[in-house]
Amino acid sequence: MKHALRLTIRPALVAASVFAAGSLWAQEWTTTTDTHRFMEVRNGIWLTQTTAQVFNSNALVIVNDEDVVIVDSHVTPSKARDLIASIPAITDKPVTALINSHYHWDHAHGNQEFADIPIIGHDYTRMKMATGAHEEPTYLRGLAGNAATLERLAGEIEAAEDDEEREGLEAYRAMFAAHAADFDEIVPLPPDVTMNEKMTLFRGGREIQVIFLGRAHTGGDVVVYFPQDKLVFTGDILFGGPSFLGDGYVDDWPQTLENLKALDFDIVVPGHGPPMTDLSPIEKSQDYYRALWERTAAKHAAGVSVEEAIETIDMSDTGFRNPSDVEVQRMYHRLENPD
Fold it and tell me: Which residues pair with residue 98 across a beta bridge?
């Protein structure tokens, strides 16, 4: 039987401040530790971000009447440990469950630090994490990105023209090298409590719905919805602009977002970036994905090679970026392998 994850309070880490008057969260508290920044979005629901200058995902820390539920476990076990050590800055209640929004490494490769509590995720997320997670192309691209960053920094250090610039670059490279080394200890741990369409958690007076709205960023994205708080954590299915499409279902994505619109909420916490109260990105994203899929499908139907499609698909009229090589390749794969 699993037990609640108990936390040790370290008050010396805590420094509280309020956002400047006039900002979106002017009445909400932020709390910063040595490694994390917590923003209370609404009613004990905290957006939690690492302060390290490395690629990482948002986590959601939900402080309930008697316990804490976390959504997403960060990029590495080390970052997850930092998160766990920082939670006493906002509460001393025990962590009793972790929810994975999807399987991607930047959201779920801290899971092993939560092995003593239930880890909840979609069936698809469990399958992807339980079968060759270290060989996933997206994860391998992450490792390649780490290596490329270290190589780039080495070149910038060599080319630095003054001591102050060189020292700054060397300090950043040392920090990033330690971050890259943290990947060596990752042992992917899949969810051990799974769902396919919907699961509801009741924690004291709070209702937490874990909902699969359809395929989008991956085949098993879930949103975490708080009906009483009118807030939804969308993971990577919704940002202010296009998400990464390399494992995506661009053909299904607009309908998945349409299903999202059926929920009653006025705040979105995405998988990366700040909370959003402007909900117009939902429809803008739908329009982008529809147009991108139609243009890609037209090229595929005309016999245009994937290499030529990569060079010629133009989305500039949408106000958003053109797809990357891997994203066009993914869409061609979907067109040639429909399901």
Answer: 70, 119
Smallest CA-to-CA distance from 62 within 46, 73, 40, 48 is with 46
Q: Average model confidence (pLDDT) for the chain? A: 91
Task: State whether 214 and 151 are in the same domain.
Answer: no
Tell me, yes or no, whether 217 and 305 share the same domain: yes
In the block, residue with structure tokens 């910063």? 32
Q: Where are the alpha helices (DSSP H) in the chain?
A: 77-86, 105-108, 123-130, 137-159, 163-182, 253-261, 280-301, 306-312, 325-336
* Interval 236-269: pLDDT, tens: 999 999 999 999 999 999 999 999 999 999 999 9
Report how many domains make up the chain.
Answer: 2
Q: Is residue 86 part of a domain?
A: yes
Q: Are 38 and 89 in contact (CB under 8 A)?
A: yes
Residue 5 maps to a domain: no
Q: If we measure between CA atoms, which residue out of 1, 41, 8 comes closest to residue 269? A: 41
Structure token pair of residue 137: 């192309």
Helix, strand or coil, per DSSP, at residue 15: strand
- Please indicate, yes or no, if residue 1 is contained in any of the structural domains: no
